[in-house]
Amino acid sequence: MSSSLSTSQPTPPRSRVSERIGSIAESATLAVDAKAKALKAAGRPVIGFGAGEPDFPTPGYIVEAAVNAAQDPKNHRYSPAGGLPELKQAIAEKTLRDSGFEIEPQQVLVTNGGKQAVYNTFATLLDPGDEVIVPTPFWTTYPESIRLAGGVPVEVFAGPETGYKVTVDQLEAAVTERTKVLLFNSPSNPTGAVYDPEETAAIGQWAVSRGLWVVTDEIYEHLTYDNVPFTSIAAAVPEMSEQVIILNGVAKTYAMTGWRVGWMAGPVDIIKAATNLQSHATSNVANVSQRAALAAVSGPLDAVEEMKTAFNRRRKAIVEGLNAVPGFSCPTPAGAFYAYVDVRGALGDGHQHQTSAELAGYILDEAEVAVVPGEAFGPSGFLRLSYALGDDDLAEGIGRIQQLLAR
Fold it and tell me: How many C-beta neighbours within 10 Å does residue 348 have?
């Protein structure tokens, strides 16, 4: 008696990690910072210019507010997913004070740091295939959040020849029938570029004429130098009020990177939808951190000005030091706390390294100085260095780079 043999094939093994998550690139800035800290822990005298993290402690009055909050049992419980009502009110008042743009508390969603605000925004706005124009160089998280939300980042590069600032003509050339959003970041991470009031208004008016959403990241609003003003695109072009989302947070201005409080502000329907998303993802931001943020945004800016004075001093020192390195050209940033140096003159024919990633690796291995290569922010040929570290470390680190590359 014969038996039939099965002709079915074994099921091929499936990937353990989803394609969606597996395709996300690691945060280059955090990776560089982590490697620098690991080398330090191993006893190597590494100096890190990677992370955009002020070296100052959080101002004392903010810490005191957090201590008091931790002792209050009402902060030991769940709170509204969208944020404490008093913090949302304070953010609305702060937005009018600093950005010149009037919003109501119901237009605010408090998030677990600025990164969650970025993701929530794109997840709420984008359908699969929608395009987002991303001025380049860009903060490394922007395109990954766009892709994770199903969108397509469209890079528009502006180099040092134009002050790392895109023009309306460049933006117009990038528009397609799938374009839905323009991302705007001024002062800029990674370049420190600041769009002046006229440039900001022109870009905003163009976006309105095209019917685009504008997502504007204003987290470095208080960090501009040489009397360069900060201009909120939302205030510069009031007619975009129903198609603009403001991203912000306490991390940079108040030296609160570890407290993890950011926010997004925009039209009520968008904020309501994003709040629903957050209610399932994380629920409320930690109440003690929210109470600290409340003290920060509603308090004085004296400590901010003190930190800004130090940043300004370091800004001048790092630009002078980098421009003394053969093949380096570093424009003076007008905002934030980053120097974005053009190193194309130190790469390619006749040089040891072909890309800025190779050069960054060489500097870390040989000089024990951690910098972030331009590939993390767009095209190769550049390095980003944060000058939010201490004065002594800054001088030592730049000195090592000078000595290494002078060979």
Answer: 12
